[in-house]
Amino acid sequence: MDSHEHIFSLLFLSLILLFTGADASGQHLNFRPTKLFVFGDSYVDTGNHGRQVSFSWKDPYGITFPGKPSGRFSDGRVLTDFIAKYLGVKSPVPYKLRRSMAQHLKYGMNFAYGGTGVFDTSTPAPNMTNQIDLFQQLIKDKAYTAADLSYSVALVSVAGNDYSHYINQNGSAEGFPSFIASVVNEMASNLKRIHELGVKKLAVSGLQPLGCLPANTAPSTFRRCNDSSNVLVAFHNSLLTQAVSKLNQQTKDQSTFVLLDLYNSFMSVLAHPSTHNIQNQFQPCCVGVSSGYSCGDVDDNNFKKYNVCDDPKSAFFWDLAHPTQAGWHAVYNKLQTTNVLQQLVVQN
Ligand SMILES: *[C@@H]1O[C@H](CO)[C@@H](O)[C@H](O)[C@H]1NC(C)=O
Ligand SMILES: *[C@@H]1O[C@H](CO)[C@@H](O)[C@H](O)[C@H]1NC(C)=O
Ligand SMILES: *[C@@H]1O[C@H](CO)[C@@H](O)[C@H](O)[C@H]1NC(C)=O
Fold this sequence. Notes:
Blueprint (H helix, E strand, L loop, with lengths): L2 H18 L14 E6 L38 H9 L5 E2 L13 E3 L17 H13 L5 H4 L2 E6 L2 H9 L7 H21 L4 E5 L8 H4 L9 H25 L5 E4 L1 H10 L14 E3 L17 E3 L16 H13 L11
Helix pairs in contact: 6-8, 9-10
Bound molecules: 2-acetamido-2-deoxy-beta-D-glucopyranose (3 copies).
One 2-acetamido-2-deoxy-beta-D-glucopyranose (NAG) binds next to helix 3.
């Protein structure tokens, strides 16, 4: 065979390999997502609330990144930004900014609103059902094609606000387990619906240890986690684990729905903070000057009513409920050690 023929047959062979999805070693090619769609609450919201309504748009939120408030509930990057980086896509544009940043639609979209739950909470913003409705409408409007969606990943973080809302509404202790079951059932139908809209892979976060959030460790001056809260979280997470494996059985693929274990990632960082260059694992970096004031509050004369720690990079928690960028980075590193993120880039 002359050299032209040789090159031609090599080309032909590589084309065959490309279309059968196998490389020379016979392994499946990696799944390379090009879009990320995000649903849920403040752990993944990157700026959907209006500037007038949310403290996430007030100083000193965003002081580490991007250097001013960006609508993120942290001093800097949040879980979404780290997952996007892992997938090799830009952090997707918040739904609210879809018109002004239309050139960014190709990276996906973020529908998450801080304070929301699978059910309605006291935050007047779209619950999970409504967020998925917004996504569905965009698909109807042809903002995303079926082919786009087949190269997409969804990230879902939700449920914490359902539980704080339940407690604020004086929900009974006896009723809590059945409420948790209804939250997880609703989450499972939300996840199924996102998948049925054409999203290829879904990462859903397990619930963080709510009992260790500064809001709940404040009674012990930020020293001890509230174990009874964490017991409820563990129940939620065990039901969610079952729900996710059932969804995977139904889709006959073990890597469609992937559970991100925030509980153990948080706990591991909180137990070994120095491994992650964190000094203050329970004390939040930004706090109100007295009870009645929160991070970001000012008085009528615009005087700050909060204090910020000297080094946000050495604190795990930013405010009473949210990690710092350093905290999220540590959690993300922990998630990476468990191989779970790899499931998001494995071909089904
Ligand atoms: C979500 O919000 C809509 C509109 O507020 C409401 O009608 C619906 O019942 C909510 N869904 C759930 C599951 O709570
Ligand atoms: C919950 O109970 C507290 C104290 O008994 C009461 O002040 C508050 O109004 C109640 N809240 C709701 C939503 O029922
Ligand atoms: C722990 O949280 C529960 C609610 O889950 C609350 O009833 C209890 O008072 C808290 N315990 C402490 C010590 O703060």
